Amino acid sequence: QLQLQESGPGLVKPSETLSLTCSVSGGSVSNSLYYWGWIRQPPGMGPEWIGSIYNTKSTYYSPSLKSRVTIFADTSENQFSLKLNSVTAADTAMYFCVLDSRSFSAFDIWGQGTMVTVSS
Amino acid sequence: QSVLTQPPSMSAAPGQKVTISCSGSSSNIGTNYVSWYRQLPGTAPKLLIFDNNKRPSGIPDRFSASKSGPSATLDITGLQTGDEADYYCATWDSSLTAEIFGGGTRLTVL
Q1: Do A106 and B98 touch (CB under 8 A)?
Q2: Which pick of A4, A65, B10, B66 has the fewest CB atoms within 10 Å?
Q3: What are B56-101's pLDDT values in tens digits?
């Protein structure tokens, strides 16, 4: 059964870069049918889609975050990563890595999430 | 404020049926597939419905959904206390070019 696991720092300073990695088990990040993504959820609020990657290199991002976001895959490690630049307190959230296994359909697999706080 | 509008809260008794609405527009629900998620406290959202009305394997048929024009609904029958959770609708918005989520509905089963 495919599983996702997020990892990365739980505390990031304002103006710095948030970096998270999602390790994939039970499946391959190289699978051309799979869309991998990142979603965040600020405390007490609804989920917000950040962006997705498919075919290991094709990406699309939320327009509201596009200028600060990079998502990339590492096929040798079977993982994909998120980088969010110039963070502020508004970026404090639970960050989830997700899988859409039906190609631009819905997010059917979620990681457990990792809380990231932006604070000095 | 979310582009997709859901009632913030709803409540119903065990065994009853509840219908959660999700209102959007022609650029999102009106032209794209809708999915629904359930989020129990302290856990990640879980997919309940994809492609408007399809259930992933393992999701009981107590959960059903439909779409009409720019709106969608999720029906839950035979409510159980374990159904107490936040429910979110989601879809692609062709104008925003982004996946969007509703503000969520907190369901209380009393």
Answers
A1: no
A2: B66
A3: 999 999 999 999 999 999 999 999 999 999 999 999 999 999 999 9
